[in-house]
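User: Hey, quick favor. My workstation is busy. Could you predict this chain's structure for me?
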Amino acid sequence: MPRSVQEPHPRFARARSRALAAAPEGGQTSPADVADIAPYLRPDEADLLRRAFQVSSQAHKGQFRKDGEPYITHPLAVTETLVGWRMDAQTLAAALLHDVVEDTAVSREDIRHQFGDAVAGLVDGVTKLDQLQFESKRHAQAENFRKMLLAMARDVRVILIKLADRWHNMSTLDAMSPESRQRIAQETLDIYAPIANRLGLNVVYHELQELAFKHMHPTRYRVLEKAVAASRQERRELVEKINDAIRQKLEQSRIKADVYGREKHLYGIYRKMQEKHLAFTEVFDIYGFRVIVDDVPTCYLTMGALHALYKPIPGKIKDYIAIPKANGYQSLHTTLFGPFGTPVEVQIRTREMHRLAEEGVASHWMYKAGDVGLTEAQRMTHQWLQSLLDIQADSRDSVEFLEHIKVDLFPDEVYVFTPKGKIMALPREATAVDFAYNVHTDIGNHCVASRINGDYMPLSTPLKNGDRVEIITSESARPNPAWIHFAVTGKARAHIRSALKHAHRNESEMLGQQLLNQALRGLGAHPEDVPEERWEQLLKTSGRSKGDVLIDIGLGKKLGVMVARQLLAREGEDDNRAAGPILIRGSEGVAVRLAKCCQPIPGDPIIGQIRKEQGLFIHTHDCPQVRHYRDDPDKWVDVEWEPDLDKTFDVSIRITAAHARGVLAKVAAAIAAEGSNIDDVHMEEESGNYTNLYFTVQVQNRVHLSRLMRALRSIQEVSRITRLKGGVRGVHNPVRKDQ
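Assistant: No problem, here it is.
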């Protein structure tokens, strides 16, 4: 049964007593016994630990924690937790020193000078950025997490020190104010517990969750704890009966195994009650059993024996041995119909799997040189740590980075297969586009479709366990802004945003060049006639590159005519000669967009509106959105459709038709016959015997639309057709144009 979290971890109690014994009343510390907590260290490593303790105890001398105990008790407690994971001397020294830079006069350079770059780097990775100024507390918190996670990506020991630090802080949180307890507990539940889970530190994961639950919902915690204690007495006989039955069955099957009954954690019970809206009396599986055997074949023999003892519940068998979790966890899970119909959950694993489940990547170290001897679990964790660097590179700021990371920290995984049979773990609800980016960034950036289990499927298709996924790519393809709405993984979202940002810059630069050329022609100059020295002078004055200036023009931050005048040295000159329109293809990208308020199509008279930070929006001349801009030449751009466009454009129409069988089919057939595609359709009943049919159709131009509407008017049941400017979604108050 799990230990109650009412009292601090026994390891922490030992640390406090040792710290107090090492600091007698005279204030003199005695580091001689400190190395005894890590008997596996070599003599030179033990000396490093003693020196670190000496510096830490002197630096924290006279400082006390909120509970009144000497501050040195905290770094000692953190160090002893790491000793339990058999961490190396550098990590233990950094644990003793982890708060000295943040809370004392000792500097990073002092640590580096006395203990070397490795220890200094670990201490720096854990140290907060308190000396910097941030926009808000949220930004400060996000930036501190970003710093810590990136340091973790370079050296996983950073996060292990931080997890041990947070574990002890959570165990001594009662001395803090209620507001601080709530904030720290929420932060622990959101970030630190999921990181512990992601690294396979099962004990730390569950302890942090329990402690966070206790401090976030103290009353619920106490009530549930009492209920579990009462249930423990009531169900003891049943648990012992099941335990004995399992042992006897395994002995009869000649399977050597250790069997343990275990009580589920309070937070796990609470979460199940919340998610399934159950009362405590309705949660039957608060007890589980763990069977530890010698090897993998025996795991499967054990499950077979248990299925002969109690019938398995269909759909409740999970094989994490054949397909390990992303954090390396391996075990067989099965849920059985126990006595009186009580569900019994059993976990079956080898001793090595059990050690990995409890200690995760802490069981062997990935920071050692090279990848020689790394387990598959460690390689997977290493890949995840490296992906943090990719996500950071493609995130706009620390807040966005943290949001991407949070997604990856809750990996309720689905397991899918590549065409070559390699297993890939992705978060639940992940789509084919997430899979593509998980394979490789270039695959994601150039994907156009996917084949799932042999069938062509959209990239937005959510993946299920066991799916075989193949990605179809095209060299000319680029990420679509719509992908952001269904991409789940932090890596995919970060790369999509990055690609769109670069595409936006490139397209904005091209648009800026067009607008500048237009302005130069309006001033009677040819773009190629601008002397290079005029560009150099302008860039030197502004301190920006030519590309940046053109992007600013494309995004509406600068007026093209003002830059043109500077290049031509015609300050204040007002020249209204015709500059010639910018030709619109309708497929320029995110820098030039067709406005949804009026849905312009080729043949409509159009006007371009520059929106700051967004680029050029194309409207129809009669669009109410731009009517008041017509008299301000700085707000609009002269544009025309490029001739002979080979592209389709969305347009919305409303058809009022009589109630009659087969009308919708007739209308759809007429639309298809005119070479138009239906993108959206829905109906709305009108008073009397008529129905309004709303379609979004794709046409090539205004002539094509007119031909389509004539064909629809020829249908006997159709009484009226209206073009809607504003799209089908805005049908309650549309701007109409009859044709």
